[in-house]
Amino acid sequence: MKYVGTVSAMKVLIMAGGYATRLWPITKDNPKALLPVGNKVILDYILEKVDELGLEAYISTNRFFEMHFRPYAERNGINLIVEDTLHEEEKLGTIGAMKKAVEELGSDDYLIIAGDNLFSFSLVDFLKAYDGRTLIAVYDVGDLELAKRYGVVVLEGDRVISFQEKPAEPKSTLVSTGVYIFPRRVMEKIDEYLSDGNKDSPGYFIQWLLEKGEDIRAYRFSEYWYDIGSADSYLEALKTLLRESHVEEIQISPYAKIIPPVVIKKGAKILGRSIIGPYAYIGEECVIENSDISDSIVFRKTIIRNSTIWRSIIDEKCEIRNLELRKSLVGGHAKIQRGE
Q1: Where is the Nucleotidyl transferase domain (predicted)?
Q2: Beta pairing class for 40-41 and 36-37
Q3: Which residues contact 334 (CB under 8 A, 6 or more apart)?
């Protein structure tokens, strides 16, 4: 079956309207799509792939995070669609936000991309696989327990014959990854679906489409996929995508050691016998003294002295002294120390 529509008229919609409660307190005031992964933010990776398509692209977000996305969108020449919500309880959800996009931009084929997804495949190849039928990108997580967190897909060739959203007993380890192409006729069914469907998860929409007899196809890919929904997945993405060091203008002690790959932003001070890396992100104007930091992300203006930090995320303007932190998530402005 060959697609006879006009791909050049397709619109790209990047969904970044969630409040990312699973990563709180890190994402309480910072949108997840703008979190750093290496020397870029999550959205940078997505837009690099989108740019290859030459299609009109939009970011869907909420009024609470609009002030973060507005300058980013202007720098990157991308348009914003802003839902009028300020809190998690008010949000439109992914399907509600898709409806708003159709109301503002009109019916069309839409390439929908979750703004917290990092994936290895080319969107050019994905588009080539589109033949006018709903197309979803699927990835084998290789573990039935892990599959329970996602929308689980069963295929016959490339045809989706079963889709279960977060099943208690998954039928496979193939999962939907938050990248979809919905043809115009499917986008026009959103109102019907929303009359009794789950507004937040595209998985339930796909399940509903299957029940309605929609022919849905899958595009399988391998290498890597990260849904940045937890501290673990965020840190794993850093390890995969941080391939070379990026060290800006910093002050560093002759006794300190940097083990690549790392990102150290401008104005940081690495003092005493500190060891930074591998896989560390140190934000602007941080002060790290006599401390070891690896597999971790430290946001700007944080002070860490006489501490060991491993597999942790520490928000901005924190003070940490005389501690060993492992697998920890520390909210902004926290002050934690153990007596000398």
Answers
A1: 11-242
A2: antiparallel
A3: 315, 318, 319, 320
Residue 39 and residue 155: Cα distance in Å, rounded? 37
Residue 290: DSSP 8-state: S
Quick one: CA dihedral 229, 205, 106, 118, positive or negative?
Answer: positive
Sign, CA dihedral 180-46-315-280, equals: positive
Indicate if 21 and 92 belong to the same structural domain: yes
Taken in order 76, 80, 85, 91, is the CA torsion positive or negative? negative
Peptide bond into 254 cis (omega under 30): no
Give how far the C-alpha of residue 221 lies from the chain's centroid of Cα atoms, to the nearest Å: 18
87 CB burial (10 A radius; 0-12, 13-18, 19+): exposed
Question: End of a domain among 180, 208, 241?
Answer: 241
The answer to whether 304 and 320 have CB atoms below 8 angstroms apart is yes
Q: Full-prediction pTM beyond 0.85?
A: yes
DSSP 232-256: HHHHHHHHHH--S-EE-S-EE-TT-
Question: How does pLDDT run across 34-64, given as a tens digit for each residue?
Answer: 999 999 999 999 999 999 999 989 999 888 8
Q: How far from 127 is each of 112, 131, 158, 329, CA to CA, in Å?
A: 12, 9, 15, 38
Exposed/middle/buried for 62, CB within 10 Å: 0-12, 13-18, 19+?
Answer: buried
CATH of the domain at 58: 3.90.550.10
Q: In which region does residue 32 sit, left (phi positive, over 0), alpha (psi from -120 to 50) or beta (all else)?
A: alpha
Highest average pLDDT, of 105-114, 184-193, 292-301, comes from 292-301
Q: How many CA atoms lie within 13 A of 321 on its CB side?
A: 6
Q: Take residue 302 and report the two structure tokens written for it.
A: 């944080």
**Domain limit, last residue, from 212, 241, 270:** 241
Closest Cα partner for 114 from 171, 49, 54, 159? 49
User: HSE of 175 in the Cβ direction (CA atoms, 13 Å)?
Assistant: 23
